[in-house]
Design brief:
heterodimer; A: about 220 residues; alpha/beta; Rossmann fold; Arc Repressor Mutant, subunit A; 2 domains; B: about 425 residues; alpha+beta; Heat Shock Protein 90; 12 helices; elongated; disordered N terminus
């Protein structure tokens, strides 16, 4: 586990519309002693506000939320405080929404059906600045980049190495195993994954800009 | 201005609820078609007007006014043809132009010439606004426009220097004839237009009803297949969870028998698997495959779910639609591969990754298990090539190749590469 030694506990906010689920997550994280739940929110609007008030290190975000969607809440939270990390916890079958959330700036994604150990591990990894990817998300991201490559030349494209790394993540290899396979350090693998995410988010901004210009709305809406 | 949200809503409206919107839009489409028909007539009338003006026996008294009017009519006709006019003010402008042409016909010739029986140079063109009003607004409007033109025709005589009371009997007959022409044309075309629009409406309605019906049938079919799938796996498992749960609780009550943690964990796993499966079933947007093909991603996801004792992840760069036979064979090979992992690899995780290039589809099966020395000949010699041999056979039959990368202690990766098109085999 890449827990950063015996640092302070991670300050976490849990966003989910089911109280039972929030209790479960609180129980998992606090019993293990890795995190302190500093806030809870049951919908997207509340999440944005409480993130601002309690300034957690990390937000555990469900995607299907009342009022404001998890994707939109993610976008706004990261806009407010770019250093805050959002880990998406979603049910399977919502991959398209997950991809949107990642484009909006989420640092990782975990299935709700994951075990407590996996959750704790993911919280620590995201807190340490490591992007948490699942193989199926890697597949979706690959698909997205290929689609972009077909459509718009000039968009941020993956380097050969990044492509290689992404395929290995999709194949289910851990960062450590990928590093061993490619003779690079685990840290370098993480950097590649981080760059892939950044390019994906950049692409979303380009897409929005292009859309705005096309619609003649190129003045900032705020 | 169209806002983005507006647009999104529009898209949804068109794709998902065609039935409620179409009928309202249809008549205007039909009217537009009829109006285009009037445009053809208008061009012929313009041409005829020009020919009459060129061949005018006595020449014009005021050629500037005559040719200016014709030029205006020509410009108006071009604009109506090229632009996409909306029938608001255009209709009124058209009416005014037609009336002006009639009145001008009286102004440009010598006094008394009109009553003397010379043809008006603008006779045909002023009929166009009458027809346009009739097709766009119905018979009442057609008659109204015709009445306006008739008055203009009378005015043409007056400006030509013939007082209303001075018009001779023959002239009156001509005038009446012109008025009747206008009125008949306006009324009759208006009635026909209304009939055509109504039947178009009815047709649209029938079409919409048909669409709704078809949609309902498709929904029913989908529901049935959903019910079947839920019955096959989810309901069975729920029943099992219920039964086993009761049994464990009963044993716990007595306090005599111990409850093993792995029993409870097995129960939880079973519920978890079904939860994931059910979510996939409900949440995942269906990927309709073209006729005769199937989605490789969807198929392999099902295969992965059906493997006991392991939850392999499936990732893919897209749905990837291939010929059904190819998909079936790849699925069988994948099932064999995953079964092999469960039996021999002692792995904690396994994954399936589907990639594609222009020519090939590649399925990679990976596990983090014990690994082994892959030596085909040695395996065959020991009679252990079984499952791997069968996989290889399937892939070769599809014109593809299988490679195995493994090392004791470092897991295994098996790659199945199959050409997309089976034409070569």
């Amino acid at each position: 586990m890449s827990a950063p030694g015996d640092r302070l506990r991670v300050r976490v906010m849990v966003v989910d519309d089911h109280p039972v689920w929030r209790d479960g997550v609180r129980n998992d994280l606090e019993t293990a002693g890795v995190a302190e739940i500093v806030a809870e929110a049951a919908d997207g609007g509340d999440a944005i506000e409480r993130a601002r008030d309690s300034m957690p290190d990390l937000v555990l975000m469900d995607l299907k939320l009342p009022t404001v969607s998890g994707t939109e809440a993610t976008r706004r939270i990261i806009e407010d405080s770019p250093s805050m990390r959002v880990l998406v916890l979603s049910a399977s079958g919502e991959e398209a929404d997950v991809l949107d959330a990642v484009k909006a700036g989420a640092a990782g994604y975990l299935l709700k059906s994951s075990t407590s150990e996996e959750l704790i591990d993911a919280v620590l990894r995201v807190h340490a600045g490591e992007p948490v990817f699942t193989p199926s998300l890697a597949g979706l991201v690959l698909e997205e980049f290929r689609r972009m490559a077909h459509k718009d030349a000039g968009d941020p494209d993956l380097t050969a190495r990044e492509n290689e790394v992404l395929i290995l993540v999709a194949k289910g290899y851990t960062y450590k195993a990928i590093g061993e396979k490619l003779f690079i350090s685990t840290k370098t693998v993480q950097n590649h994954v981080q760059n892939i995410l950044t390019k994906l988010q950049l692409h979303r901004r380009y897409e929005l800009m292009r859309y705005a210009i096309k619609k003649g709305l190129d003045r900032a809406p705020d | 201005m169209a806002t983005p949200t507006h647009n999104v809503a529009d898209n949804h409206g068109v794709t998902q609820e065609p039935s409620h919107q179409e009928p309202a839009r249809a008549p205007s489409g039909t009217r537009r078609t009829l109006a285009r028909g009037v445009l053809v007539f208008r061009w012929v009338a313009l041409l005829w007007m020009s020919v009459l003006a060129l061949t005018h026996p006595a020449g014009f008294e005021r050629p500037g006014l005559a040719w200016g009017s014709i030029a205006a009519a020509a410009a108006w006709t071009v604009w109506l043809t090229a632009g996409a006019p909306r029938w608001g003010w255009t209709l009124w402008a058209d009416l005014a132009l037609g009336a002006w042409l009639l009145v001008a016909s009286g102004l440009v010739v010598a006094d008394g010439a009109v009553v003397a029986g010379r043809p008006l140079f603008a006779t045909g063109y002023p009929l166009s606004p009458v027809l346009l009003w009739a097709v766009t607004r119905g018979p009442g409007a057609g008659l109204g426009a015709a009445a306006a033109m008739s008055i203009a025709a009378v005015l043409a005589r007056v400006v030509n220097g013939t007082g209303l009371t001075e018009i001779p009997a023959e002239g009156l007959q001509n005038l009446a004839g012109a008025a009747v022409n206008f009125l008949v044309a306006g009324g009759a075309v208006g009635i026909v237009s209304r009939l055509v629009v109504r039947s178009a409406e009815e047709l649209q309605q029938t079409h919409a009803e048909l669409l709704v019906e078809r949609e309902r049938a498709a929904r029913l079919a989908e529901r049935e297949s959903l019910a079947r799938e839920i019955h096959d796996s989810v309901l069975q498992s729920l029943a099992l969870v219920h039964k086993k749960g009761q049994e464990i609780a009963r044993r716990g009550q007595g306090g005599s028998e111990r409850i093993r943690p792995d029993e409870v964990r097995g129960l939880a796993d079973l519920a978890g698997e079904q939860e994931a499966g059910l979510r996939d079933l409900i949440l995942r947007e269906p990927e309709p495959s073209p006729e005769g093909t199937a989605s490789l991603r969807e198929t392999l996801e099902k295969v992965a779910r059906s493997v006991n004792g392991l939850r392999p992840t499936v990732s893919s760069v897209g749905p990837i639609h291939l010929e059904k036979r190819t998909v079936t064979e790849i699925a069988a090979a994948t099932r064999e591969g995953l079964t092999n992992v469960v039996k021999h690899a002692n792995a904690t995780s396994a994954s399936v990754f589907i990639d594609e290039t222009e020519e090939n589809v590649t399925v990679s099966l990976r596990d983090d298990g014990v690994g082994f020395d892959y030596d085909e000949d040695a395996l065959r010699a020991r009679g252990k090539a079984g499952m791997l041999g069968s996989m290889k056979g399937r892939v070769n039959d599809l014109g593809g190749a299988m490679t195995v990368t493994s090392q004791p202690g470092h897991g295994t990766e098996i790659e199945l590469r199959v050409p997309k098109s089976q034409a070569s085999t």
